[in-house]
């Protein structure tokens, strides 16, 4: 039975590394995985998933208007696909998460999604909200705060290292940085 997985975490928990390792494992067994990533994440160039420890792989891009069921159905009809890996899945829309459930339920291909649970304001991303709601398996990838506790929150800081308490959910470009911290240090950073 194919299933949908949501691997979620704060920043810098090794999501892309875990995704690329899964892709490698499938290929090693002679299987054919497909990787997608969000078109808005162009840190490492268009159409690539890169991990901080140096691994990288080509990827298809999804945009807000991409119909992922149709895209994957077409790829699968050209050549059998054994697994779909989605990086930056917090940027999926509700419709796209639904389309991915159809990939699992109608095409019987497992879908593994990797992304952030919440933004720097502690709010769920749209993609994460529906993945938490509809995925078969929820798997937390853990990372730690500077104090050693589990980091489940993300702080956005400006170029001086000060925590930012408002702004758009997605900041493209600019000098903002993201730091993963525990909830207590999140509150402290925002002066709560
Ligand atoms: Zn802490």
Automatic annotation (TrEMBL):
Binding site residues for ATP: 9-16, 87-90
Keywords: ATP-binding, Cytoplasm, DNA synthesis, Kinase, Metal-binding, Nucleotide-binding, Transferase, Zinc
GO molecular function: ATP binding; thymidine kinase activity; zinc ion binding
InterPro entries in UniProt: P-loop_NTPase, Thymidine_kinase, Thymidine_kinase_CS
Name of the top EC class for this enzyme: transferase
Subunit structure: Homotetramer.
Family named by the database record: Belongs to the thymidine kinase family.
Species of provenance: Vibrio scophthalmi LMG 19158
Localization of this protein: Cytoplasm
PROSITE patterns according to UniProt: TK_CELLULAR_TYPE
GO cellular component: cytosol
Keyword set includes Magnesium: no
Chain residues that bind substrate: 170-173, 178
E.C. designation(s): 2.7.1.21
Binding site for Zn(2+): 145, 147, 182, 185
Record bears the keyword Kinase: yes
Main location: cytoplasm
Designated name of the protein: Thymidine kinase
Active site: 88 (proton acceptor)
Catalysis: reaction(s): thymidine + ATP = dTMP + ADP + H(+)
């Amino acid at each position: 039975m194919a299933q949908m997985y949501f691997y979620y975490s704060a920043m810098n928990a090794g999501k892309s590394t875990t995704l690329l390792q899964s892709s490698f494992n499938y290929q090693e067994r002679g299987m054919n995985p497909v990787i997608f990533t969000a078109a808005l994440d162009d840190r490492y160039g268009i159409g690539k998933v890169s991990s901080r420890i140096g691994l990288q792989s080509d990827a298809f891009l999804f945009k807000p208007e991409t119909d992922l069921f149709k895209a994957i159905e077409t790829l699968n009809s050209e050549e059998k696909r054994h697994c779909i890996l989605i990086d930056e899945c917090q940027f999926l829309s509700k419709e796209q998460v639904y389309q991915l459930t159809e990939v699992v339920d109608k095409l019987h291909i497992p879908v593994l999604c990797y992304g952030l649970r919440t933004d720097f304001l502690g709010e769920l991303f749209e993609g994460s909200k529906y993945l938490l709601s509809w995925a078969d398996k929820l798997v937390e990838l853990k990372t730690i705060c500077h104090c050693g506790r589990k980091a489940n929150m993300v702080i956005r800081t400006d170029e001086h290292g000060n925590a930012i308490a408002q702004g758009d959910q997605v900041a493209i470009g600019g000098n903002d940085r993201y730091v993963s911290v525990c909830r207590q240090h999140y509150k402290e950073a925002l002066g709560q």
